[in-house]
Amino acid sequence: MAQSTIQTRLCPHCANSVALDTLTCPYCKASLGAAPAPQWPSQEDEPTAAVSATPKSGLPLGSKIILVLGLLVFALGVFLVGGQSERTDLAPLLEAKDKDIHDSAAKITALEAELGRRREELKTSVAQLDELKAKLSEQDKQLAAAQGKLKDSSRDLERLASRPAAPPPPARPRDPIPPAPAPAPRRAIEPGLYETVRSTAVHEEPLASSRVVSRISSGTQLTVVRGVGEWLEVRSKYGNPPGFVRADDAMLVGRAN
Q1: pTM of the entire predicted model
Q2: Could you tell me whether strands 17-19 and 212-216 are parallel, antiparallel, or unpaired per DSSP bridges?
Q3: For the chain, how big is the Rg over CA atoms in Å?
Q4: Cα gap 233→256, rounded to integer Å
């Protein structure tokens, strides 16, 4: 039996087998002249097409954004907790460093104050040294002048020594020395009314070292009751305590009756 050699193709509209040179499909009556032959999928391509046609399953975009934000928040929390822990561990070291810095600053301030004081002392010492130098220079000048005068005096003495000695003048008889006048007899102290000739002090006892009772001015009248050596015992008319004044500070103006 002879095999058929007629070549066929599929209708692009109804997918029935028709002759290769057929211009109109005998089944669906569609024109086959200008229409290209469809590419029907084979059995090898069906699983791939099915897989590609299957919709991909995954998370929505909002869930992805929330997940990313959550990861960022978690990472930020870990960073902050780690930084806080690190700062807590470094706090004692930082305090020690701050204390060392403060101590160093205090030492520097003290050293600067000491340096300023030393500078002032040095300035004072330099001024005193300059003053001493000036005084020493003045003393050197005075010493040089004194040495010059001494040399001049030495030369004068040498000249005087080289001259012949002059004869001494004739001795004159000495005048007789008059005898010293005898001291005038001291007048006796009489009780009566006295008047001070100068300002004086009233003593508690007839001693210069005794306590001073009061002071009276010149021209004051006193009532004298008796004399004790060089002292006058006086009584006050105004109720003042009695005392003693020197006899040379008052003179008698009226005797007692």
Answers
A1: 0.29
A2: unpaired
A3: 74
A4: 14
Question: Residue for token digits 């005038």?
Answer: 184
Q: What angle do CA 71, 72, 78 make, to 5 degrees?
A: 90
β-strands 200-203, 221-228 pairing: unpaired
Residue with tokens 């028709």: 18
HEC string for 48-72: HHHHHHCCCCCCCHHHHHHHHHHHH
Tokens of 194: 């006295």
Residues 6+ apart with CB under 8 A from 203: 210, 211, 212, 213, 231, 243, 244, 245
Distances in Å between the Cα of 146 and the Cα atoms of 103, 134, 156, 166 are 63, 18, 15, 31
Give the separation between CA 158 and CA 213, rounded to whole angstroms. Answer: 69
Please state, in angstroms and rounded to a whole number, the distance separating the CA atoms of residues 215 and 165.
Answer: 67
Give SS3 for 230. Answer: coil
Q: Angle 50-53-58 (CA atoms, 0-180°, nearest 5)?
A: 115
**Residue for token pair 């004790």:** 228
| C-alpha–C-alpha distance, residues 206 and 215, integer Å | 15
Q: 176-229 pLDDT, tens per residue?
A: 666 655 554 555 778 888 899 999 999 999 988 889 988 888 888 888 888 888
d(C-alpha 206, C-alpha 226), whole Å: 12
Query: How far is it, in rounded angstroms, from Cα 201 to Cα 209?
Result: 12
Q: Domains in the chain, start-ordered, CATH in brackets? A: 192-255 (2.30.30.40)
pLDDT tens digits for range 108-121: 999 999 999 999 99
